[in-house]
Design brief:
CATH topology: Diphtheria Toxin, domain 1
Structural class: alpha/beta
Number of domains: 1
Mean pLDDT: 94
Strand content: 25-35%
Number of helices: 5
Oligomer: single chain
Largest sheet: 4 strands, mixed
CATH class: Alpha Beta
Strand order of the largest sheet: 2-7-6-5
Low-confidence stretches: none
């Protein structure tokens, strides 16, 4: 069992699969590092709460209370999951995997969607039968791991189970830790 975390703009009372619910993914997905909407839904996570916060809010230099609110004033949330990893993740932090794929580490972290999305197409074609998705090091905090689970038909990936929802604020421990590690001003 693997623990995974995802930040999202929570709207109390949102229906399953709709904006504001933990199970919502926009369609089509086009702007994420590994997105290939014609092949799969991209379910992005972190292996730590701090990593999820860092990936979600890194672009803000000052983390004031409003950063953790939706435009409608609802608190953003951290969804906590357990994932029954009956299929492993393809580890893009493994030199042997990268050599087998014929890619360099810089091709994993590059901020160029043409490069990463094309690589995702190749990986999906090659590995989706034996793997549930991929993992790689966070571009914001390289000591943390990010995860992409492949999904289909706007449904959460098989084996993914919600175990909790935590309201984010400047007082949340993961926010405090991420702000410290990213050298962000908090409050």
């Amino acid at each position: 069992m693997t623990r995974l975390y995802r930040c999202y703009p929570r709207i109390p009372g949102a229906r399953r699969g709709k904006p504001g619910h933990w199970s919502y993914v926009p369609s089509p997905q086009l702007h994420g590092r590994w997105d290939n909407a014609d092949l799969f839904d991209s379910w992005y996570f972190s292996r730590s709460a701090m990593g999820a916060v860092a990936e979600s809010f890194y672009n803000k230099q000052r983390w004031i209370p409003e950063v953790f609110l939706t435009p409608a004033g609802h608190a953003r949330a951290l969804a906590v999951f357990e994932y029954d990893d009956n299929k492993p993740l393809l580890d893009l932090d493994d030199a042997a995997v990268l050599a087998e794929l014929g890619v360099r580490p810089s091709q994993i972290v590059v901020q160029d969607l043409t490069t990463t999305q094309e690589l995702a197409r190749r990986i999906f074609a090659r590995a989706s039968q034996d793997h549930a998705g991929i993992s790689w090091w966070s571009s914001q905090l390289p000591s943390e791991n990010s995860v992409l689970l492949w999904g289909a038909d706007s449904q959460p990936p098989q084996g993914l189970r919600l175990v909790g929802i935590e309201q984010l604020s400047v007082d949340h421990p993961a926010v405090i830790d991420a702000a410290s590690r990213l050298f962000r001003v908090l409050g």
